[in-house]
Amino acid sequence: MALMKEDPFFTKIEEFRQRLEEFSLSQPTGPSQDGQSLQELQVSISTMLEELHVASEELSQQNEELHHAHTLLDFERRRYTRLFDAAPDAYLVTNRLGVIQEGNIAASILLNIPQERLPKKALATFLRGDALRDMLYYLRHIAILHPGERQGWETVLHPRNQPPIDVQIGAVADATSASDNEITLLWLIRDITAQKRMQRAFFESQARFQTIFQATQIGVALMDLEGRLVEHNPAFQSIFGQSESNLRAAMYPKLIAKGYPWEETLMFAALREGRRDLYAIEQVHPRGDGFRIWVKTRVSLLRDAEGKPTSILGLFEDISAQRLRDQEILHLERTLEDAREKERESLARELHDGPLQSTLGILFQLQQLENLNPADQRQEIQTVISEMQEVVSTLRATTGLLRSPILAHFGLEQAIHAHVNKIQEENPDVRVAALVDNLEEPLLPRVEQGLFRIYQHVLANVIRHGQASHIIVRLQRQQDQLIMEVEDDGVGFTVPQRWSDLIKDDHYGLVGSAERAVQLGDELRIRSELGTGTAIRVSIPLRKEDQQKHSLDELGPEIPRY
After folding, report:
1. Per-residue pLDDT tens over the stretch 294-310
2. If exposure means fewest CB atoms within 10 Å of the residue's CB, which of 29, 359, 420, 477 is most exposed?
């Protein structure tokens, strides 16, 4: 009733009652016809009725506002409930002891407990060992904090009948708590098991990489785009024979400048500018201790996800021992060459004394056939045929000896290196570099033989006509293609339109190489201008179905450009 009297409407009624009571007491006890008093009473009643009407309208408006407020409150409550239950992370409401009062669907799934059974469950029951001690510590700490001060940590949670999971916990005291005895804690629990697994895998991978990085015998160097050394392994330091302090202050272009810089300097500049993504080269590097070693270098440009260059990675391998083996192979090549010369002399004698003499005898026999009768002719023809078969067999056996021994026994890469060494020795004023990469898988013999003959003819043409001081031979496998490029810095020439014009200019070697190239399934491409050197390129398909034999005439009379 006290609450009702505070309302304006009931206040007006009470005031009206009191005034009627006062008026009744002020009137004489006997009958009276005091018209003035009655008139005043009517006026007073009319005034109070009007005030009551106004109070009634105000009360009605207040009731509408209250109803609207209740509607909004109910809407917000239902919206909160939906958001609470639909949240992807686990949300809990507990008392100061960590006893659950409310939890969302995500919390039910995380703890493997039906949502309606979450209340009255102690959060501590899902913790073990150090995780439980951490929880008790934070509970005590949160209880004395000011409302709104958040605590967060990572721990291991043990859901009911499920393996442990890594979680991230955030807890805060509810600012609406009435007192310390009624403090309410709000919890956010996020499953970070997958994140932790990825993090552990990353650290393990990083540890393995560091182990390999430090232990590998191949020098590894990470550089910025200017060539400044950012990180390197012990093998890199050993290969270059430099102190750690010197390498920290070194620029890679200065290291290679101590050797034969012209090739790699140009390639490294193109890499820095983003005009190429990688290069490989073999060259002599002077060490800090004065020794010179052969180094196989592979340098790659690293890019970010958007394709922007970020850094440069270099791999360096000491191939001095391999080069020593190459020298041994070269010595073997010379020995074999001497043996080949003797063999050629013997072969010439055999051809002269054997197939050639037999052929002359056969020719004489054929000339005498017309002097014989038919029966003797048939017998003589059979004799000639038999002798011709012997000649063919002898020639086949002889031609089988004409293949390069290095190519036959060691493969295309070693044959090219051996030939380069020979050319270098025979032409000391010409520097020849062979860059061979990704030829671990064996090639078909006809491909090896054909490509090696093309290489021999092209290189001989450069030495004979090019007047070059530097020659680079590149041979690499790219997917299903075997690509060979020969570049020189010689005088160059104006490439004619047709092969027939090239023959007129005495470039028989290039024409012969072109014939071999098309027989292997590709064209020989030429790029040259006067004063700019010459580049020759051949791309041979490695799949058998792509190695169709052609002739030069079938592919057209014009020279393909490179």
Report:
1. 889 899 999 988 888 89
2. 29
